[in-house]
Amino acid sequence: xxxxxxxxxxxxxxxxxxxxxxxxxxxxxxxxxxxxxxxxxxxxxxxxxxxxxxxxxxxxxxxxxxxxxxxxxxxxxxxxxxxxxxxxxxxxxxxxxxxxxxxxxxxxxxxxxxxxxxxxxxxxxxxxxxxxxxxxxxxxxxxxxxxxxxxxxxxxxxxxxxxxxxxxxxxxxxxxxxxxxxxxxxxxxxxxxxxxxxxxxxxxxxxxxxxxxxxxxxxxxxxxxxxxxxx
Length: 231
Prior knowledge:
With 231 residues, this protein is an alpha+beta fold. The chain contains 3 helices and 8 strands. It has an 8-stranded mixed beta barrel with strand order 1-2-3-4-7-8-6-5. Mean pLDDT is 78; it is low at 10-26 and 30-67.
């Protein structure tokens, strides 16, 4: 005989249902086209230069100061190879948002962050696009949630991310900086096929739901930011 669900199990199921109702899920614009391209996952690379050895004529830093000095990083505008983004910093929006890599849906739509409290503050990177930071061409596809109560990462992007703003993608041993070159708002029903471009100059393409919320998980528009590598 099936066991009656416990109060904790019932509470968890209700929480998931509420998340589905309130979250602005990125259900995308237009078909992505063919599914070609290489797998973008790979070890983050880009060698970090070791710290210089202090000259005998200068005193070495004390243990306390050394502990607070950040390690040197690779150049911001150039990397030797493609890398997997682990965190993303956006001017005035977030200092270090984590990146998840959900699979695409059966219809080819890029996966979005989970519908959880933590998921509200995450970026999703579409590995199936086959484009990673550091590649010589094509769009690195990113998305984030918009919530009707204004509490998600997508809401902050809509309010604060504009042309000329800086975005930094960081991997395990490499980072790459971008500047926003374009912000576009389109009707969800109309779409923006160039979001999925695998050719042309390398850039980020970030999408969030926007406009009016028409129903649970259904929004009138999509806002897309394009950003190019820059120091």
